[in-house]
Amino acid sequence: MRRRKCRLSAKHLLVVTTFGWFITFMVLINQLTPIRDNYTSERLAVLTEPLNAPGKETPPNAINDNTPGDETPSGKLRDATMRNLLFLRDNIMEVQYFLSNRRKDWRESEKRTMQELVNHLWLETYQILQDITGSQCHQNLKQTSDAIVAAINEIQQERDCNDSRNKLALCDLMKPCGFGCQLHHLNWCFIMSFALNRTLVLDDRTWSYDPRGWSDNFLPISKCPYPKSPSNATLGRLNVDQSERVITIPIVDMLGSAEIVKSRFLPSIPTKWAGKISQCHSAPITWYASHFIAYSMRPNGKLSDHLKKVEVSHNLNGTKYFGVHVRRSDKKSEARYHDLSEYMQYVDNIQKKFKNTSLHIDKQIYLATDEPRVLREETLDFPDYKFHGDESVATHATPGKRTSNGSLIELLTDIISMSKSQYLVCTFSSQVCRVSYELMHFERRTEDVGWRYQSLDDFYYYGGQADRRWYAEVAHLDPDQQLGEMSAKRNEALDIKGNHWDGFSKGTNSRRQTGLIPSFKIRPSLSTFDLGR
């Protein structure tokens, strides 16, 4: 143990030193002159102290971790180091975006040097996290995941449907939108029913994608039949501690942001598991939600056989590949157009970054799209990569042909294949992209895969969720008014609306000032709730 303590301290010091060297180097080439005083001292101070150190303000809505652990000084230092390293790892790229934004006239040699430094620091931080957390986090996440799955199974499959003491929550698939949107509606119902200790019963009799219902492709969500006389009691219009045996869960968009059931449960995770999850995972809310998506999408025999054939036909089994989702068609009015080259820029950077490391990804891509021309023409510009995909699948994914069982099978093939990739590049404005990212978390639920993505537009969110509170991990006290920046005190509550992926995010501070703030200075809070009994 004594040897391990010294090793961790030395490695932690190496990260801080390397990061400081990186900052110093950038100052020497006049990149950080206007911001170095505001950045270096505060950021490096954060790296060397616990997030909730004694005498410091606890960030708004931040988790109060009461999980039993190592209470020795070395144990507390290790836990604080883990959290700070997670924060550092997930913000290294944001620092690069920020620096690139602040100066446009980089020489090629400077670009290469900065990229090499950023890659080195990221990989070193990743390896230290593996050394510190390693088997312990693997065990924590596995035990927690097994407990969640067991609890879901007990509520959904083992209870007596005719016992009046067992309460039910009803959910239908009548929401007028695409499959990803409908699936997220179902998942909202599932998360709510689980939180309230109710068995979820699905009404899929008039499902637009398959008149034979959900179980035509998936295993039944529960063994309880849909009641002949559904209850008129609707969640959100009553108190959350309802006594009615049967309630109906409405579409989340119908609930106001102030409704207690929405603000309390979405996005949040159960208190009993929060400590172990947050210590070991950079996206705890996504990891938790993935269990319900995965349970809903357990393939039946027919779908399983189809997926195996696809895996064999594309020769993907055992291949470390990228997942790329290019959404066009109906998204033209909702999101900005992105050429395939924009996606490939991120793919190429990651492929080079992980080359000759344990994270190496092959030059192979599973490409999902609803625009056949992307597979037919645009991929020709990247001869070094092998693309897996089917033009006929892309044709069936066009808006006029989506709501058929055949197109559903092909869409599921795309979603599940992307979820098994090593790294996902897509637009989080697409529900299909977010479903793949969520399933990736369950597919590799014993490790932290929160970083294995790049979105070209939105950051991750759950459609219809209550506003998620962020806070300033590092103060931003001297904003550039001409660039539209806002100020933020350390630990000040923030409402962040989006990441611009150029080093800045846009939001509003607690003083109702709206503007931009460097993305590496902010962190989302984590709210929790107690499960119903």
Structure characterization notes:
- By secondary structure, this protein is an alpha/beta fold.
- Helix content is 44%, strand content 12%.
- The chain contains 14 helices and 15 strands.
- The radius of gyration is 24 Å and the shape is globular.
- The relative contact order is 0.12.
Short note summarizing the structure:
By secondary structure, the protein is an alpha/beta fold. It is 44% helix and 12% strand.
| % residues in beta strands | 5-15%
Spatial gap, N to C terminus: 41 Å
Strand order in space, largest sheet:
7-6-5-8-9
> What form results from the Cα inertia axes?
globular
Total DSSP E strands = 15
List keywords for this structure.
533 residues, alpha/beta, five-stranded parallel beta sheet, five-stranded antiparallel beta sheet, 44% helix, globular
